[in-house]
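Researcher: Structure for this, please.
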Amino acid sequence: MSKTILYIATSLDGFIADAQDGLGWLHPFEDVDYGYAEFAAGIGAIVAGRRTYEMVAQMDCPWPYAVPMLVLSHQLAQQPPATLPEGAELIFLAGEVQGAIDQARQLTTKDIWINGGAKVAQEFLRQGLVDEIVLSIIPLILGGGIHLFGSLGRSINLILKNSQTFEKGLLQLTYNVQNIQN
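Model: Predicted structure, token format:
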């Protein structure tokens, strides 16, 4: 069975975006080969929130994903965008996160990427729907912004599967999510 993988970058102090919801702090690390191509080759579908979808759709480049993206958004499920990015295979869902996983598993036998943002990541973790976390830690203290984990309301037990260091001090940790405890 496919795994659900939260694959995400964070600052050393646990933020995925700065105080203005920006990602510019990641730009100095874009040239680091941290295994993204290998990761992406094992992915058959992506689940993302509306804000993540909109950020990617507004980038000045071709659509970066060759697999279907399921976008969680009550707003976009009721009224999808009039124009979609060229080459994007998008499914807009207003339902629960479990339904998104079920639908993604109907589309692929490969792994499913839980591709942010923080609210989406937290909800999948809260409901016990993440099998693995691949966390790329950027050696930068932002001092504020959007926290990745926030208050989940429960403890989550992780087992370290792998750790790697990369150029420019980037550290990548891979954890199996063992179980969720109340």
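Researcher: Any notable elements?
Model: The longest strand covers residues 155-165. The chain is about 20% helix and 35% strand.
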